[in-house]
Here is the input.
Amino acid sequence: MKKLLKLSAVALMAAGVALPTMVAAQEEFSAIMITDIGGVDDKSFNQSAWEGLTAWGEEHGKERGVSGYDYLQSNSDSDFVTNINTALSSNFDIIFGIGFKLEPAINDMAQQYPDRHFAIVDAVVDQPNVASLNFKDHEAAFLAGVAAALTTETDHLGFVGGVEGVVIDRFEAGFVAGAEAINPDIEISVEYAGSFGDASRGKQIAAAMYANDADIIFHASGDTGNGVFSEAKDLVTNDPSRNLWVIGVDRDQAEEGIVTVDGEERHLTLTSTLKQVGDAVKQFAEQTEADGFTSGNTVYGLADGGVELTEGQLTEEVKEAIEDYRQQIVNGEIEVPETPE
Here is the structure.
């Protein structure tokens, strides 16, 4: 099973989305991203996007700043429009909105500035000057559910979501479906923190789940998930006999699960679902600089490496089972649900 795969250029046009609009490339090209809550050091979604934009800039001889690439951090929802206006006044050629929470702001500003170009991750904005970059998160989450159900010793799993909505619905639905494919009677506790940037709330939710005998928690909650990792590490440090795991999200979060117990290093990240946001941002910036802007909706999944699952601490037996389910999904034999039941 491959940990990381290069994104394919194949675009799947979502129903109801207008046909792509193309605009010629320019000699000078700059790009900026507006973060969702959590910042570029959230060890998850925003960080992955920033790493991709940074890679694009460095590979093309750009410098950080208005003539090259940059980011603006959003500390609350009220920052979205302010940050977009700042990006517009700085004359960046493409403005990336990272996360579905920016959808209303991107949609409104795209209509106000029809000659400017935008891209949004994890949402669809049907405007001729907006490109939408989306992912089949439920497919990778299904594999995470399979991994968790085959690894648990208590038959009790946990799912911690950030903010409820169609995107995190996909993570929850896929995870539950994957786990129940292995064990229809497995217990799965689901709770939402109401934030992507509240690590203390994530730690509190995780503490309650672990106390109720859940031994594996999958989080899809951005920076909030750092609290899940923190709680798992604290519990194992206090009682090394406990076998507790966390499943990371969006990028390989193996490092977040490392803890030293009695002088020995333990790894509590069972696996991580990968969402190649960085690759998508990098690829779109490259294509736009070289060939001009193209609107429309591009959807990435298991088949083209847009989402995946790391090998992490999975056993060979579990990895074999995951590869089998992976192929069934890619071949269309399994249709993974996108909404929780």
Q: What stands out?
A: The radius of gyration is 20 Å. DSSP finds nine helices and 16 strands in the chain. The longest helix spans residues 166-182. The first strand starts at residue 22 and ends at 23.
